[in-house]
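Example record used in the benchmark description.
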Amino acid sequence: MEIIGYLASIFIGIFLGLIGGGGSILTVPVLVYLFHVDPVQATAYSLFIVGSSSLVGAWPKYKQGFVHLKTAVIFGIPSIISVYTTRKILVPAIPTNLGEYGGLIVTKSLMLMLLFAILMIAASFSMINSKSSKETFTEGEQKFNYPLILIEGALVGLLTGLVGAGGGFLIIPALVMLSKLPMKQAVGTSLLIIAAKSLIGFTGDLGNSTINWTLLLSVTALAIAGIFIGDKLSKRIDGDQLKRGFGWFVLLMGLYIIIQQLLFPIAGIH
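Model output (structure tokens):
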């Protein structure tokens, strides 16, 4: 299973490089089902993997002028505070056993996996219904809806802290609508925000648990290598069709996790 896990780690990066996002949604399932990492620990590892990969992806976008630093700071600050607080205080405070409902013992791990599966389904619809990257977006006057940006940033940080996903499918529309960024700049800025909040959020777990650095750095390195492969492939493959196809795959994965966790909890990892 570990060999398959390492191959899957490369594909996480490939999809990130190909479609500019979404690949990180596979990180937690890969860690849980292929490397047998505890789900709570997997969400922490995912923050490091997603953050490192996004940082690598953000650098060329920055050099191309597709990163709006002011927006990244304004949106990123509440998100960073929220994700760090969630990992340092909220997640450790959640009881290991949350109760029994209809004969099903609800644990912290089960709750996080179900929440992650719901996020996968939401992300899949975003990818399936995404607009073509060839469409043009008119750049409006740069302005900030500060109250909504603060709320959105805090909520995305909370979600990232709980399930370990980047949340780009939530951040990009927010940057377009709330900060009036053109799409290409929203994508680049989103990568920088995801990198900052994920890596800082990961530091909230340091000291709370033992980190398997060998596994973590190996998966991260393979995911980053996959980004470069995906970037080269993106010049030959229709990214819009691939994104929709990947969306259907993520949808099926999300439904599988829900069914597996609810109907076969003994076989699951809790």
